[in-house]
Design brief:
The complex is a heterodimer of chains A (115) and B (114). Chain A is mostly beta strands. In chain A, 0% of the residues lie in helices and 57% in strands. Chain A has no helices and 11 strands. In chain A, strands 2, 4, 5, 9, 10 and 11 form a 6-stranded mixed sheet that branches. A 5-stranded antiparallel sheet of chain A has the order 1-3-8-7-6, with no helix packed on it. The radius of gyration of chain A is 14 Å and the shape is globular. In chain A, 37% of the residues are buried. The N and C termini of chain B lie far apart (33 Å). Chain B has 114 residues and is an all-beta fold. In chain B, strand 9 and strand 10 form a beta hairpin. Chain B is built from no helices and 11 strands. In chain B, strands 2, 4, 5, 6, 9, 10 and 11 form a 7-stranded mixed sheet that branches. Chain B has a 4-stranded antiparallel sheet with strand order 1-3-8-7, with no helix packed on it. Classes of the chains: A mainly beta (115), B mainly beta (114). At the A-B interface, strand 4, strand 5, strand 9 and strand 10 of A face strand 4, strand 5, strand 9 and strand 10 of B.
Chain lengths: 115, 114
C-alpha cells in the first residue's frame, strides 16, 4: 500500500526566502505525482504535475522534481511571498484504468510566509 | 463549466439524517473521483466513475455511502443515517482519460454532523 509522507507538518519563513518542501513515498511504481495548494476552507488547486518519466516541472516561481528510485519529490518555491501561505499537498498517482491516476495524498505542509 | 462545481458548500446534518452531495465535473471529463478529507489530514479516495460506470468503490467506508453518476456527467454522493465520524470535507475531482491523468478538484462540501 502506497504511503506518502510530508515533513515537517508546518513551516514558517520570512518573505523573500527560497524554500523546499519535501515529499516521500514508499512505492516507486507510480504513474505521476501532483503538487496541490489548499487555502483554508477551500478545495485543491493543482500546481504541478510530473509524469513518471519526467524529472522535473516548472511553473513561474515553482519547480517540482521527482526521483522515483529514491521515492522522493521536492517542491521548490523561489522568492516566497505572503500570498504563498497555504497548505501544500503532495499526491502520488497509481496507474488506473483509462489513463487516469488514483491519488494517494500526504497530510500536507502548512506554510506561513511572514511579511 | 470552467471548473468542477460542488454543492452545497456547507451542510449541517443531524445524526441519523440522510444527505446528498452534488458534483458537476468539467464538461467532457469522463473520469470522476470522490475523496474524503478529515480535519488535518490529506484527502482519501472513496470511489471512481468512468462515464456512468462505477469502476471502483473500494474506498467507501461503509454501506451507508452510495454514489451514482447516471448519465455520465453530474454525480451524487449520498450518505445515509449520518454519523459524527462522517464529518469531513468531501472533494470531487474530474479528469480527461488522457496520458497525463491530471486531476482537477472542486471546492468541496464541508459536512458537519451534529
Amino acid at each position: 500500500k502506497q504511503e506518502v509522507t510530508q515533513i515537517p507538518a508546518a513551516l514558517s519563513v520570512p518573505e523573500g526566502e527560497n524554500l523546499v518542501l519535501n515529499c516521500s513515498f514508499t512505492d516507486s511504481a507510480i504513474y505521476n505525482l501532483q503538487w496541490f495548494r489548499q487555502d483554508p476552507g477551500k478545495g485543491l488547486t493543482s500546481l504541478l504535475l510530473i509524469q513518471s518519466s519526467q524529472r522535473e516541472q516548472t511553473s513561474g516561481r515553482l519547480n517540482a522534481s521527482l526521483d522515483k528510485s529514491s521515492g522522493r519529490s521536492t517542491l521548490y518555491i523561489a522568492a516566497s511571498q505572503p500570498g504563498d501561505s497555504a497548505t501544500y499537498l503532495c499526491a502520488v498517482g497509481a496507474y488506473y484504468t483509462g489513463a487516469n491516476s488514483k491519488l494517494t495524498f500526504g497530510k500536507g505542509i502548512t506554510l506561513s510566509v511572514r511579511p | 463549466g470552467a471548473g468542477v462545481s460542488q454543492s452545497p458548500r456547507y451542510k449541517v446534518a443531524k445524526r441519523g439524517q440522510d444527505v446528498a452531495l452534488r458534483c458537476d465535473p468539467i464538461s467532457g471529463h469522463v473520469s470522476l473521483f470522490w475523496y474524503q478529507q478529515a480535519l488535518g489530514q490529506g484527502p482519501e479516495f472513496l470511489t471512481y466513475f468512468q462515464n456512468e460506470a462505477q469502476l471502483d468503490k473500494s474506498g467507501l467506508p461503509s454501506d451507508r455511502f452510495f454514489a451514482e453518476r447516471p448519465e455520465g456527467s453530474v454525480s451524487t454522493l449520498k450518505i445515509q443515517r449520518t454519523q459524527q465520524e462522517d464529518s469531513a470535507v468531501y472533494l470531487c475531482a474530474s479528469s480527461l482519460a488522457r496520458t497525463d491523468g491530471e486531476a482537477f478538484f472542486g471546492q468541496g462540501t464541508r459536512l458537519t454532523v451534529v
